[in-house]
Amino acid sequence: MAMLVSCSSGVRVKEITPTSTEFTDGELAEYIEVVDQPCELSFYETDEHMPTQYFRLKVTLRMKKDGFKNVDARDISFQGWWSASINLVDNNGYEVLNNLTVKSDEFSKLKKLLTGSEGDTEEIVFEERFIDHVDAPKYFKQASKFTPKYTCYKINIESSSSAEKKSKVLTKGSEETSNKIFSDTDNPDWNELLDSYEQYVDKYISYLKKASKGDLTAISEYPALMQKAQEFDNKIRNVKSDMSASQLARYNKISMKMLEAAQNLNE
Predict the structure, then answer these.
(1) pLDDT category, 60, cuts 50, 70, 90?
(2) Rg of the chain's alpha carbons, rounded to an integer?
(3) pLDDT at 11
(4) What is the CA angle 219-225-230, rounded to 5?
(5) Read out DSSP for 112-158?
(6) Are strands 166-170 and 84-89 parallel, antiparallel or unpaired?
(7) What is the pLDDT of residues 118-156, one digit of tens each?
(8) Number of C-beta neighbours around residue 230 at 10 A
(9) Helices 188-212/217-238 angle, 10° precision
(10) How far is 181 from 163, CA to CA, in rounded Å?
């Protein structure tokens, strides 16, 4: 919408505006909103191992209410496939690109924001990456607005100083108004989902390794992996029972394995 800048490094940058300030779903949506102002969308391509395109959107998030007080930000985790996602749309409101998610090295900023107060803000980068996608430059050209979409369906706080795993919702100051203990026994539904999740993560890590080595078969695997991620997230949102403490620990361990694999690729 605003001016388009092309740099010698090949990075293209423009400003786009939000269609809404509210995320549409998830527990995190109760805490954060998008500040209604132009945001920088950048696009660049690399060819270090194989042609790769990156979309990055700098969004200012604001706390809608007081967050988690007297909590170490490092103890916060997000239950779901992503902490928050954003879709790019064109001038007619049609979706151009789905599910830009919080960049891996931006999680600490988002978690720190959640320990703040109503009105606090933080600039967070959302990212999507493609492997040799011929239409990626077209997506950048078409994108003129963005829409906040899904957030994680549950926020967990796991204190490293306590054996008791709790999900907490805190209000102003340090007053605790809700304190939900995880289930004492493993739920069979969650065991099945976690088995599927771990299988998916193993496949995704294998895909990352192939992509980093320039294996062209990784290109054909990407769409199916993204579809599987969406299907799994939908299943998680529909589970009515709670995780046990051991199941939460397993979930976090699997998620960390995937995050570390992605970070190692970027180093």
Answers:
(1) very high
(2) 19
(3) 86
(4) 140
(5) HHTTS-TT-EEEEEEEEEEES-TTHHHHHHH--EEEEEEE-SEEEE-
(6) unpaired
(7) 999 999 999 988 876 788 899 999 999 999 998 988 888
(8) 13
(9) 160
(10) 12
| Biggest distance spanned by C-alpha atoms of the chain | 58
Token pair listed for 28: 């995190």
Per DSSP, the residues of 19-56 read: S-SS--BSGGGGTEEE-SS-EEEEEEEE-SSS-EEEEE
User: Which residue is associated with the tokens 């990075």?
Assistant: 11
Distances in whole angstroms, Cα of residue 223 to Cα of each of 64, 196, 250: 35, 18, 27
CA distance 102 to 122: 13
pLDDT computed for residue 241 by the predictor: 67
Closest CA to 21 of 32, 34, 30, 31: 34
Contact present, 154 and 233 (Cβ < 8 Å): no
Which residues pair with residue 33 across a beta bridge? 62
Strand partners, 46: 52
Match 């995780």 to its residue by tokens.
243
Q: Closest by alpha carbon to 30, among 155, 125, 127, 115? A: 155
Q: How far apart are the first and last CA of the chain?
A: 33
Amino acid at 197: Y
Cβ(82)–Cβ(104) below 8 Å = no
Rounded to 5°, the CA angle 153-155-157 comes to 160
In this structure, what are the phi and psi dihedrals at residue 215, rounded to the nearest 5 degrees?
A: -70, 115
Residue written as tokens 């361990």?
Answer: 253
- The CA distances from residue 239 to 153, 166, 201, 232, 254, in Å, are 11, 19, 20, 11, 19
Two tokens, residue 64 = 């809608």
Q: What is the DSSP letter of 2?
A: -
